[in-house]
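I have been asked to look over a protein record a colleague put together. What it holds is a sequence and that sequence's fold in token form. Please read both lines and tell me whether the tokens look consistent with the sequence. I do not need a full report, just your reasoning and any doubts. This is what I was given:
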Amino acid sequence: MTMTQRILDLAAAAPASHVEDLVLLLSEANELYQQGLQDSRREVAARLEGLATADLMHAADTAGMPCDPSQDRAEVILLLALAEWEMTPAAMAYAEMAGAAARRGICLVPEE
């Protein structure tokens, strides 16, 4: 099973889940989301290896991820990877799942 399919399955199961189960589903989906983002970061870094940082910053701005001049190359690549990753079905399903869980008062970050 692919990461995308697993996240889609978790997102499909989430609405009917009880709180304890939803926290487990959300936690697994979050781990897969983070893994997908890191995979995307590696792919973007390899693909854009020869570009100057200024060109990367322009690409990030164009992608709707504005950069600060103080950001280094790795941070700009992460922004570009995030812009790409957020457009994938897996990331969109996770975002919807997390949003729906938050509306039910469930979040992976504990309240202080």
Observations:
- The chain has a mean pLDDT of 92.
- The longest helix spans residues 19-47.
- The chain is about 70% helix and 0% strand.
